[in-house]
Amino acid sequence: MKKFFLVLITSVLLVFISGCTYQKETDKDLTPYLKNIKSYSTDMDMTIQNDKQKLNYAGKQFYVQDLGSRLELNKERVFIYTDDKIYVSDLIGGQKYTTVKSSGDVYKISFFNEFIKLLNTNGKTNYEFKEIDGDKYELITTSMAENNRNINRLVLYVNQKEKLPRALVIYDAKGNEKIIIKYKNFKNETIDKNLFNIN
User: What is the DSSP letter of 11?
Assistant: First the structure.
């Protein structure tokens, strides 16, 4: 009888330990992996919801750690972000101009690497795991360092199997969804440096 209970307890413990191990393997935090992405390209769809209307944008993003970010928006404009400036090319009007970067620039915030910068500078970060449409996601939540009522909390959805960002949802100070960015065809790849030529 004692032998039976010993076998039963051992079996329960083994199931419990293996269950914990499985949980850790499937719910592994992907933040260290994401922080090591040095360059990427992705298609992007962005929806901005304000009090009066809903605005939709489509574009392609490129990022190289030492060069900056490039956004091709609606096949109408190209934005190149460097450390302190934005170089804008109007593809329809044929004009080019330069402006100073702003922390509230929604196009800049739409870049995945900008979210990673927030993680590196903001101590308030939350992690959770959810299954959505049969796929498992890690949800990484952080907030803006500045006091911004319209851009307050950001949640990045990372597909656990692919280890790729799939969406970024931005909330205002009242908890309303203000901006939704969906990433498609995200590729962690070497980018042509000529894309960042500002001349």
Answer: H
Q: Is pLDDT above 80 for 79? A: yes
CB 109 within 8 A of CB 170: yes
Burial of 85 (0-12, 13-18, 19+ CB in 10 A): middle
- The pTM (predicted TM-score) of the whole model is 0.82
Q: Is the dihedral of CA 119, 120, 124, 129 positive or negative?
A: positive
**To the nearest whole number, what is the mean pLDDT of the chain?**
85
Q: How far is CA 190 from CA 9, 37, 61, 63, 156, in A?
A: 53, 10, 13, 9, 23
Q: Are 68 and 83 in contact (CB under 8 A)?
A: yes
Alpha carbon separation from 172 to 58, 137, 141, 180 (Å, rounded): 22, 23, 13, 12
